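wait is this the right file?? whatever heres the structure
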């Protein structure tokens, strides 16, 4: 079952439950996926769907940070609810320890020895962890293990 089918089912459920917040977020996700599908010109693969979801989640997290810095609690609550809904459709997130293990294995595989190999390690580890861990966490883990 594709993500679009899942979203359509959840869209119907949100309409019946009159859940305006979920309805809005699901429509937004569906729209983002359909736009991406039009841009690439074919049905999206699972990886492409995860990329779109990750992008939407990242946008919301950045908005959350901005609203918190501005002291806008009314907007913070709404964005937190949106993040929770988007996270339901993301793959299971790995723990910090699992990310650290995968990064350590990748460093060993590419033969990285220091900070100069950061780009090489990131290029190798990001496809492995795509959608399963936050990019900032991966970045910090790679930096700490290369030091």
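ok assuming it is, sequence goes like this
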């Amino acid at each position: 079952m594709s993500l679009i089918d899942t979203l359509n089912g959840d869209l119907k459920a949100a309409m019946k439950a009159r859940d305006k917040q979920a309805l809005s977020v699901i429509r937004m996700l569906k729209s983002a996926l359909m736009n991406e599908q039009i841009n690439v010109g074919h049905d999206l693969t699972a990886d492409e769907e995860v990329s779109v979801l990750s992008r939407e989640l990242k946008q919301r997290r950045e908005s959350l940070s901005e609203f918190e810095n501005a002291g806008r609690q009314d907007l913070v609550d709404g964005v937190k609810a949106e993040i929770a809904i988007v996270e339901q459709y993301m793959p299971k997130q790995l723990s910090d320890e699992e990310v650290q293990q995968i990064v350590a294995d990748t460093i060993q595989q590419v033969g990285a020895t220091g900070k100069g190999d950061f780009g090489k390690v990131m290029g190798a580890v990001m496809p492995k962890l795509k959608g399963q861990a936050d990019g900032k966490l991966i970045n910090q883990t790679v930096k700490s293990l290369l030091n």
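The chain has a mean pLDDT of 87. so i think its the right one actually
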